[in-house]
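User: quick one - fold this with flavin-adenine dinucleotide bound?
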Amino acid sequence: MEFGFSEEQEAFRKSVRDFIARETTREMDRELDATSEFPVELARKMADAGFYGVPFPPAYGGSGGGPIEFAILCDELAYGSEAAAACFLMPVFFAGEMILLNGSEEQKREYLPKIISGDLRGCFALTEPDSGSDAASITTHAELDPSGEHWVLNGHKALISGVDVADFMMTVVRTGPPEPKKYSNMTILMVDRSLPGVEHRKIEKMGSKAIGLFEIFFDDVRVPRSMVIGAEQAVGTGWAQMWNSLDMERIMVATLYAATARRALDDAVEYAKQRKQFGQTIGNFQAIHHQLASMKIECDAASLMAYRAAWLKHAGKPCSMEGAEAKVFATEVAQRVTQQGMQVMGGWGYTMDFDMQRYVRSALLGPIGMGTNHIQRTIIAKLMEVF
Ligand SMILES: Cc1cc2nc3c(=O)[nH]c(=O)nc-3n(C[C@H](O)[C@H](O)[C@H](O)COP(=O)(O)OP(=O)(O)OC[C@H]3O[C@@H](n4cnc5c(N)ncnc54)[C@H](O)[C@@H]3O)c2cc1C
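Assistant: Sure. Structure tokens for the protein plus flavin-adenine dinucleotide:
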């Protein structure tokens, strides 16, 4: 057994770190949090630096990194700058991965190079007002028009990230009845956001604000038949297509929140070394140094679980269980550690003068997004064959 990264992986980690140090600042993250704006300029710089191509094969313009390089990138971006992570994760990785795993060869050649160069961004629209965890109960639907050239799309999506900056929306729809299974006849359409009949409305949220949250309304939207992900033969297979991307999604979320926790820990340590009470730095008090040590143990465990899942994926081994475990653990560690960080900083941790409150707000999303932790635990129990 070998613990550790190759020289190339360490060099890659350093290059991401250097980029973050050069191109981002705490002030920038604070400002984007306050204004809820997507960092367009930073997104362009990240594409130019080649980061968008990391998880994609050279045949489509990527650099052919594997799950470990992908995890390193997520880790460093999320640790360094929430805004940088927002630029990459949903509009680039998520949209691109969906095409890479499920698209036709023609779709991969057409769209992946544009996603990697930063010229095209996407979002993923599954959730609806009445269909969240019970994702197979969606009602947004599409029927072929009489000419057979277009899918006519009607329905309503909710809680969708990044719609305003997306050129296209990977939209999960019903293209037939929920039979013989509830998840039968689901299809993923790549919908151009500028098509007539598409409207969106912003939903205000409490954290992770560099990427916005939206509802989308589809009213007789005519989507060309060629925009079915995976082409004609993939109509009705949307559920299986979504399952294909779950491993990398969980690795991504676990790495992201393990990094958020580590960032909160490092800020808390810095504060404990500076802040003086009773004539000495608060890091001298056993209550504080024990708390920081406990946070460190949790951060390391979360990070190890995330990289274990990435390593399994890299080795071509099953990792659905380990990915789900890492997602649950890292997101819950991020909640605990950011709140403990706030405790270490006392009243100042609660103020907007410091970043700890932003980490707390971001961490609260972890157990909810990308499959809630209740659902992940059910998946783990199922894989354990408990039921
Ligand atoms: C900031 C943010 C960004 C998002 N971005 C996107 C996006 O880009 N695209 C997208 O499609 N969706 C997105 N979502 C939606 C997200 O995936 C859903 O919020 C999530 O799947 C949960 O659905 P829900 O909110 O409807 O909760 P519900 O499903 O109503 O669940 C409410 C509670 O009940 C629990 N619960 C439900 N069913 C069960 C069960 N069977 N067993 C045990 N507990 C259960 C849940 O765990 C949860 O605690 C986003 C959400 C947020 C908050």
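One thing worth noting: The chain has three domains: 7-120, 123-236, 245-383.
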